[in-house]
Amino acid sequence: MGKADVNDHLCPNLYPGGYLGLFKITLKSLLGWLCTLPSLISDLRSSFRVSYKDAGDHTIGFSLFSVDQDQFLALARVAKLWGVTLNDIFLALLLKSLSPFAMDRMSSPRRRRISIASIVNIRRDLSLDIRDPFGLFLGSFIVSHAVPGGINLETLARDIRRQTVRIKQYQLSIRTALALALARHLIPLLSPPRRGKFYIKYYPLWGGISNVNLNPLWKDGDEESAPDYIRAVSTGPVSPLVLSITTVNDLLNIGVSYKTTVFAREDVQKIITTFSDSLNTLGATV
Q1: Could you give all domains of the chain from N- to C-terminal order, each with its CATH number?
Q2: With contact defined as beta carbons under 8 Å apart, do 242 and 268 qualify?
Q3: What is the DSSP letter of 49?
């Protein structure tokens, strides 16, 4: 076996250094982080908070639904027509689906927006190869919107797009990773009751998405693509609900992880129904 063949089969680096040693923060990104920080704080301060029956209850429920090939291809055509990404549409769909559960925001004097997060792969931002080192290199960003009654999905998706363009321009998903790392060091300094409510109070998210397209990964390797693939993503301490959206062979499998102290199973079914009905409506427009 030649030297090149041996290198091709070497094990990846299983224990790379922490994020801090991999960040390549540019002056442009740093200035962007500072310039957009006031708007981030404003969005969080104007975001409606989720009601937890018991902040110490970490029980998680799970549901699953799928989007067939015809719906997925129609969704891709709509995204191209609107000039947005699939991720932008997923965020808009989640906002629309969560809006009925936050109707009390309409009577709030200040907190009238809904904030949600998108978990993203920041491997490219760290200039890492797709396979080595091994592991997940994740960041996240948040988008906020008032989601007024009667807003159509196209308008909402384009509003979200304006936010995500700026997020990508300044690599704000890396800033969020650093902020959460800082919070991890601050939280132990708080009293136990305040620890459980830290994110609820200061980082009031209603949900999030983890969107993964497996097709490029299969094509990059020697393996045949899987006939199907299902993921489940933990809600963690920050978000009470997470959609794990997985694309494989022009199919979408969407797992819904949720904290049962916030959402009942019937609530989650309503979210899934609204999400699915909105997709069906999109399919009828193209």
Answers
A1: 18-283 (3.30.559.30)
A2: no
A3: P
Give pLDDT tens digits for 82-138. Answer: 999 999 999 999 999 999 999 999 999 999 999 999 988 777 776 666 566 666 677
The angle subtended at Cα 125 by Cα 123 and Cα 129, nearest 5°, is: 40
Tokens matching residue 149? 């009654």
Query: Residue 133 burial by CB count (10 A; 0-12/13-18/19+): exposed, middle or buried?
Result: middle
CA-based nearest residue to 139, from 173, 167, 103, 90:
173
- Give the Cα separation of 177 and 188 in Å (integer): 18
| Long-range CB contact pairs, 280-286, < 8 A, 24+ | 280/71, 281/153, 282/71, 282/74, 282/75, 282/78, 282/89, 282/153, 283/70, 283/71, 283/74, 283/75, 285/78, 286/74, 286/77, 286/78, 286/81
What is the distance between the alpha carbons of residues 125 and 139, in angstroms, rounded to a whole number? 10
CA–CA gap between residue 271 and residue 95 (Å, rounded): 10
Q: Can you tell me the distance from the alpha carbon of 62 to that of 233, in angstroms, rounded to the nearest whole number?
A: 9
Q: 213 is written with which tokens?
A: 């397209």
Residue length of the chain? 286
pTM above 0.70, yes or no: yes
- Please name the residue ranges forming H helices in the chain: 3-8, 27-45, 69-82, 86-98, 153-169, 172-186, 192-196, 198-202, 215-220, 265-283
Q: Which residues are within 8 A (CB) of 284 and not within 5 positions of it... i.e. 6 or more apart?
A: none
CA distance 123 to 281: 35
Structure tokens belonging to residue 40: 């981030």
